[in-house]
Specification:
Blueprint: H1 6-18, H2 21-28, H3 32-46, E1 51-53, E2 58-60, H4 62-83, E3 94-100, H5 102-119, E4 123-129, H6 136-139, E5 143-148, E6 158-171, H7 173-179, H8 185-188, E7 193-196, E8 215-219, H9 222-230, E9 235-239, H10 240-248, E10 253-255, E11 261-270, H11 278-293
Length: about 300
């Protein structure tokens, strides 16, 4: 059997339950003639008479009554399912799937999620941490927070810049007590350095030629690098927003404070400008307000 238009089925149900084509038209918000043509088309498709028609009344046939008994419950369930979609509600509902880097996820995003779930109890959050650029559509993600050195320009995505990032060098007081504070890149070259693979190589004040420091410890996660610095493992480069709390509380000391590397910016990314779910706009607005009240710490080179 060829596929049947659900509008034909809705017209049939409305006529049976309303007792006339006119009543069905009022219920569906369409002319009587539209309902009559829809029922006739359904009868032709099924090759069965569904209503006895006279000038005074419309009576459902035995086949029509049997069809109504079969169709009415699933049709009601289908209409309820379509009207109750999470994205159509004014209140955010459903599951919000996020992806971001480990550094952002363990700090800014974690705080935002805690606030968000408290404000919107009908939303669950599924957070994925990945330092690689993830395909949002293929991964089924609603939103991403990404770090990029250049403005993001992807036609199928909305990319909104929400903060700048900078990198500086840090050590623990215990390490500096043991090894001394380096006053130049020449002195830094003799220290135990913690290297970070993939860190943006964009220093605005380069070391003297031939005096490039060598990393004694290398890792590919900035949170691990931070833990190594805290443990006195050496001097390493971190995002300012990851280290400022440790500096304030005395766990870190800025090394060569005049040196700074610009490290791009943080972008809020989501797939489409049309039909953006309430859960996405609510999270977007929350994190934008968070960063408006407490911007990401960044510095200009001295």
């Amino acid at each position: 059997m060829a596929p049947i238009d659900l509008n034909l089925v809705r017209a049939f149900v409305a006529v049976h339950e309303g007792g006339s084509f006119s009543a069905a038209g009022e219920r569906l918000g369409v002319p009587r003639s539209t309902v009559s043509r829809a029922v006739a088309a359904l009868e032709q498709s099924l090759d069965v008479l569904l209503f006895h028609r006279t000038t005074r009344r419309v009576t459902t046939t035995a086949a029509g009554r049997a069809l109504h008994e079969r169709l009415s419950p699933p049709l009601l369930a289908l209409e309820a399912s379509l009207s109750d979609l999470p994205e159509r509600k004014d209140e955010p509902t459903g599951t919000l799937r996020l992806t971001t880097t480990t550094e952002l996820g363990s700090t800014i995003v974690a705080e935002a999620i805690a606030r968000f779930t408290a404000l919107h109890p009908k939303v669950d959050v599924d957070l994925h941490l990945d330092n690689r650029v993830v395909d949002l559509a293929r991964g089924g993600f609603d939103l991403a927070l990404r770090v990029s050195l250049t403005p993001l320009r992807v036609s199928s995505l909305i990319a909104r810049k929400i903060g700048n990032l900078s990198l500086q060098l840090y050590s623990s007081p215990a390490y500096l007590t043991r090894r001394g504070m380096p006053r130049s890149f020449s002195e830094l070259a003799g220290h135990d350095l913690i290297g970070l693979r993939g860190a943006p190589p964009m220093p605005l004040a380069a070391p003297p030629k031939g005096q490039v420091p060598r990393s004694r410890i290398n890792c590919d996660d900035m949170l691990v690098a931070r833990a190594l610095i805290r443990a006195g493992g050496g001097t390493g480069m971190l995002f300012s927003f990851l280290a400022d709390g440790d500096v304030t509380e005395g766990r870190f000391v800025r090394v060569l404070p005049d040196w700074l590397a610009q490290a791009g910016a943080v972008f809020l990314v989501y797939p489409s400008r049309r039909h953006v779910p309430h859960k996405v706009t609510a999270f977007r607005d929350l994190i934008l307000e968070m960063l408006r009240q407490r911007p990401l710490p960044t510095r200009e080179p001295l």
